């Protein structure tokens, strides 16, 4: 009897002791970093706001203080590049958009992270880098076979519609990824409910010059044929290939939504379109998966629309092609940081299984298998698990070609596309202008130097590159 | 202190000064003014001349800040050639000149009209003077933000009230910032709102400095007010006009905050001026060399414009004298 009692007491004691332990016990190397202050530069976006909520917990546990400087998204790339280029180490780590990784990494502004991942003194034992979705981590953080950043969320671009408005108009919207949701379907549905007199526009599109690199591209992709997939911007020899009838058709389709919108919509960005939708004055609009909770489903701030939405993918094009959009933000350690070990300690803690799953209740998106399967995600953001298979097998990290020239390419598309929207030029002229100006940008980037044989590999032509197990990257 | 002590102290001071100056000696005396000016010259060199020389150096090379891996080498005048061969440059130059001419022209005549009105010492003039100056006191950034929200699609005050009027007239909404022509004119309007007070201030000062005698003589001769304005006021106001117009022209030519905050150069490229183009080249594409060449070209344009103004005004003033 005594033996049983003693064993039971020991078991209870052990259980209590285990519960009292923090989720990750600190190593001696981590304990030595207490008292350090690290600085983080991030854009003002919902997913970063969700992560900032965890800073006090980290500071209390590790004794490392994290100072966050938030910059409006439209100024973020400029600010981060200037800071990196100066090499002062003012910021220890940066938020990195998937489209800027090539620019940052090629310039040597970021520290390779795999040595830190494998450093057991700094990385918690249950970090498990292989828990990240292969295409998410390789598509977000790998450049030239080297891991430079860790993702904090990645997802597709889509569309959000009001189910109640559709029902009132006598139709039911299809499920996400349904082949029924085509470009024609979306246009017809918008036309059916469009009624400006009753303050209901068919679709709040985002034609502002600075947004085409995000909002128009799903349609450029959807209007491809299965044979032209991969040649949206450049051919196999890196020659610009955008001046064709598919681009023209996609611009015409995108600008056809102008008829549903107010006359002062030419500069509408994500903010304007979202505000109109949140006010209950639009049937549909653009979404990015990471924004859904913050922009459309918060009952406190979006009382008119929360709970009345369906979140779909962007529509299937006339040739059956769907946009394999891949958008992601990640954390990159500055090459000039003077606190690299403390910064990595924070990055690995913030991107751990536990924090990633808990952060989803505040709107952060998943990038780990375990997060996708977590109950927290299913409870607070039920629209996410449905895109798991897509992110695992269909998504293409190079849907927008990830070259250092992308910022210029995106700007050219926006300017020429927006000129079509305001009626200054037609879509054929815009496509021709895009080709000419993008060619110049690529020429300046050194792609057409005669005899050059070290051009980057076009990984999007064989996506198995991105399916490698995360721990196998350099 | 006795008189003798005073004398000794004064002598010592004089002697001391002599001693200090004598350190420079007859041959080094020319150095003394340079020593006194040195701090100013050093600051001037650091904030004016060195950046200018560095810009010349950068414009002669191929520096792309976001691509430090590209080898840098001397490219001669290539960057200047790249700027003038870029259709965007000519488009931006056209927009800049159009903006500058329109804004300065309207500001000048409005400012002059207000200055003449206030000069009449009517009732309430003191209050009016303060009221007129308010827009100029606001920082350009704040003024641009205020107007951006005034013209905000669907919700701005201007959009709402002007829209109500135009809808009642059957004209529909006015796309203040979405139509290429109207957006450009909206920017000119806001610039005029903000900087007419400056013209008013400068021209008011000019008017106050004109002596009364010519007006009294004209009154005795029975000259009408229109004739007095063109033959007395305008010629005597020319120095003030020259300064006001040159300063405003240089400023309007470099307008940045207003355009970036209200339209960011859009819609399309309808409001892309040289400064917006420069910022895009330098701080979005990080092409430091092309941006340096562009800024030097802009500087040359401003110098040439100022030179032309001065020559024209001087020749007219000489004729008037």
UniProtKB/TrEMBL annotation, chain A:
Q: Answer whether the UniProt record assigns the keyword Signal to this protein.
A: yes
Q: Which GO terms describe its cellular component?
A: periplasmic space
Signal peptide annotation: 1-25
One Pfam family cited in the UniProt record for this chain: SBP_bac_1
**Which InterPro entries does the UniProt record give?**
Bact_solute-bd_prot1 (IPR050490), SBP (IPR006059)
Does Oxidoreductase appear among the keywords? no
The record's subcellular location field reads: Periplasm
Its primary localisation, in coarse terms, equals periplasm
Q: Which UniProt keywords apply?
A: Periplasm, Signal, Transport
Q: Which family does it belong to?
A: Belongs to the bacterial solute-binding protein 1 family.
Designated name of the protein: Carbohydrate ABC transporter substrate-binding protein (CUT1 family)
Q: Which organism is it from?
A: Shinella granuli
TrEMBL record, chain B:
The membrane-spanning stretches of this chain are: 31-53, 97-118, 130-150, 182-207, 228-247, 291-313
Q: Name one GO biological process term.
A: transmembrane transport
Mind listing the UniProt keywords for this protein, alphabetically?
A: Cell membrane, Membrane, Transmembrane, Transmembrane helix, Transport
Q: Where does it localize?
A: Cell membrane
Taken from the UniProt entry, a GO cellular component term is: plasma membrane
Q: Which PROSITE patterns does UniProt cross-reference here?
A: ABC_TM1
Record's bilayer topology term: Multi-pass membrane protein
Q: Which Pfam families match?
A: BPD_transp_1
Q: Record's family?
A: Belongs to the binding-protein-dependent transport system permease family.
**Protein name, entry field:** Carbohydrate ABC transporter membrane protein 1 (CUT1 family)
Q: Organism classification, top ranks?
A: Bacteria, Pseudomonadati, Pseudomonadota, Alphaproteobacteria, Hyphomicrobiales
